[in-house]
Design goal:
single chain, 367 residues, alpha/beta, Rossmann fold, 5-stranded parallel beta sheet, 5-stranded mixed beta sheet, 16 strands, 25% strand, elongated
Amino acid sequence: MIQIGLIVNPVAGLGGSVGLKGTDGMVEEALRRGAEPLSNERAKTALRGLLPLKDEAVIYTGSGDLGEASARSLGFETQVLHETSGSTGAGDTRALAKKLALRGVDLILFAGGDGTAADMYEAIGEKHPVLGIPTGVKIYSPVYATTPAAAGELARLYLTGFRSELEQAEVLDIDEEQYRLGRVDVRLRGYLSVPRKNRLIQGRKAPSLLSEQAAADAIAAAVIRDMEQDVCYLIGAGTTTYRVTERLGLAGTLIGVDLICNKQLIEADVYGSRILELAAGRPLKLVLTVTGGQGFLLGRGNQQLTPAVLQAVGKDNIIVIATQLKLASLGGRPLLLDTGSEETDRELSGYYKVIAGHNRYIAAKAE
């Protein structure tokens, strides 16, 4: 039998859709704002990729939302190695990871964000094969597949011997309190061993270079030049997009989403239902940039842009901006979409005309 380990952090990513830029210490506030847990649904998306192996596999996991519920709902033979009292925490992740490694499972799938990856490293180090299912808010660590579906595909390939090699990948984590203040403090926590296939594993996020500032200024000027009267603009998170609000002299947010109309700030750091409320009855456009090194257009650090918001905007009203160097760093790989809705991902896929400078445009495909 194929032995698969499964760990789900049920609160990972909970703060993303409600503008909290993370979940550490913010679970109650996220729930108060109306956030809905998505980790188990994303874990199930990954597990569907393993359904062809269902009759020859057993999933070892933790009770309830720690993994058991997701695995059993899809009909997998499931054995619980770690019982919880209902609520779970980092201690449960570490305890279950140790038990799975001792059991000698063929691969441990874990659903979470950078904090969960750090817990995995602390528990089992870099010797045991693991693979991350992305459910967190801002994922820097290249131990995660690009999407939950890609995690399922890569896990199946690895478990059936098509991709047997492993690679040590960095576990990176950020200080979420500093991140909420607009400061990115990324620290190397260690390494995990993951199956490697470039198309399915996300890259390490590359920081913006100081030499890129002039290019970002030219892009921001182009966006401002083309802004239409009485049209609302959502300005997404990132250093390139932040130059737009800076050039307008507005007090926007570096790692949040801001709403601007007629070159005035309507509200900073907006999210989900609040965006729909403020923009009701007005034309709406969205300015996005690409995460350097990873290539994500949606789904990393901008979960405030929920599927409902993206449906209201529409593909034709998305303005993509990125410097030529940032696009070149992707090595020809497509831009990535991971909105949490497969239907929305499909609707937003295709080609975009990326503003890369003054009167300079580059075609890029998103998928």
